[in-house]
Automatic annotation (TrEMBL):
Organism annotation: Methylomonas lenta
Keyword Transferase: yes
Boundaries of every Glycosyl transferase family domain copy: 202-354
GO BP, sorted A to Z: lipopolysaccharide biosynthetic process
InterPro entries with a match to the protein in the record: Glyco_trans_1
Name of the protein this chain belongs to: Glycosyl transferase family 1
CDD domains, per the entry: GT4_MtfB-like
Gene3D superfamilies assigned: Glycogen Phosphorylase B
Organism superkingdom: Bacteria
């Protein structure tokens, strides 16, 4: 089988989408080296990283890179051309992973990874440019994709609610997994926590942006302190995202500025240390296609308080305390309870490790390879409908 796979977002600055594609292609190369793999450093006109594939090379017995472009305009011109399929060698499979979706494929089976449509649920969660680009890709997938890979049952349901014409039997749930291969790694303490004791801080991981709900988390934390909660600092581990220019002002107005540690971007080793040594991992996100920080924290035994919304209960199972993301008072009350109940905290840690063991990249890659085989054995969707 000739597999064409989009790796455009797997470079050094990768986020959730990039980690998904990166881990899947690594696992497939290990599980099924007999196939021919064409990896695409650029894919479409929505995302472009000029350093790919130099920034993140892969190795395999029969692995080749697709066209490399020096500019985003050159990549856009290529990928929107009518002869793109032939120029790529007409792969059996072309798998799109960065929201953009081609519509001109006539022979290759087009697989499209669908992450989520939070951008369509609430316009305030992202910028107009990002919202338009993402929706354009998802809409094109509903027209042109032969199969859709959804990263959770919640994402699958949302996709079918928005695009009810898409055949349900051609959408398959394949879960992401943790990026960390070794659960025994101790990690490295971030410099920002040099004076914070292990086990003596609350943790929140993720880009600081409206959908991740740090505004309400800060309010809940302030309420927790007002109720007499132990003055453990709240560590926010993640870069600053869009539409959050007044976040620092919000901290000051709530009077918690001195209790907040903002690390900015952290390395994988630093993130492992943060997960392993936090008192609890707090993830109050309003909307998730999956919720990777929940799973990754659990992998290192982090007791977890998280949202009861969208896909997160699928990830957390019964191993976390699930809370409505808008209910700041209840978040504060649960934090207060957990801060004085070490037995409950320790049991959450045990439950977390058990739940994390249910997710494995090799299982996900095997499921994807099986889907590729089914897609190749089936007619293209336009022929079947």
């Amino acid at each position: 089988m000739h597999i064409g796979f989009d790796i455009s977002q797997t470079g050094s600055g990768k986020a959730g989408c990039g980690y998904f594609a990166h881990a899947l292609i690594k696992a497939m190369l290990e599980l099924a080296p007999e196939h021919r793999y064409s990896l695409f450093p650029s894919f479409g006109n929505f995302y472009f990283d000029a350093k790919m594939p130099i920034g993140n090379p892969y190795s395999g017995r029969d692995l080749h890179y697709g066209p490399r472009h020096l500019t985003g305009d050159a990549a856009s011109l290529f990928w929107n051309g009518n002869d793109v399929e032939a120029s790529l060698g007409t792969p059996d499979i072309i798998h799109a992973n960065n929201f953009w979706c081609p519509t001109q494929l006539t022979s290759s089976r087009l697989i499209y990874t669908f992450y989520d449509m939070g951008f369509a649920v609430n316009p305030a969660w992202t910028t107009e440019a990002n919202r338009v680009g993402c929706f354009d890709g998802v809409f094109r997938s509903a027209i042109a994709a032969d199969w859709v890979v959804a990263i959770s049952e919640a994402s699958k349901s949302h996709y079918l609610n928005v695009f009810p014409h898409f055949p349900e039997d051609r959408i398959r749930v394949i879960y992401p997994c943790s990026r960390f291969a070794d659960s025994s790694t101790e990690g490295k303490r971030p410099k920002a926590l040099v004076n914070v004791p292990a086990g003596g801080y609350w943790l929140n991981v993720g880009t600081i942006e409206p959908r991740k709900n740090q505004y309400r988390l800060i309010e809940a934390y302030g309420r927790y302190l007002a109720l007499g909660g132990a003055p453990m600092p709240l560590v926010l581990a993640g870069g600053k995202g869009w539409l959050m220019d007044d976040f620092q002002k919000h901290l000051s107005e709530l009077g918690v500025e001195t209790q907040i540690v903002m690390t900015g971007y952290v390395s994988d080793d630093e993130l492992i240390w943060l997960y392993r040594n936090c008192y609890a991992n707090l993830y109050p996100s309003l909307f998730e296609g999956f919720g990777l920080p929940v799973l990754e924290g659990m992998q290192f035994g982090a007791p977890t308080l998280t949202s009861n919304s969208t896909s997160i209960p699928e990830v957390a199972g019964d191993a976390a305390i699930l809370i409505a993301p808008e209910d700041t008072e209840y978040w504060a009350q649960i934090m207060l309870r957990l801060s004085v109940n070490k037995q409950e905290r320790d049991q959450l840690s045990v439950n977390a490790l058990k739940q994390a063991g249910k997710f494995d990249w090799k299982q996900s890659a095997a499921a994807l390879l099986q889907l590729y085989g089914e897609a190749l054995a089936s007619p293209k969707r336009r022929m079947a409908e």
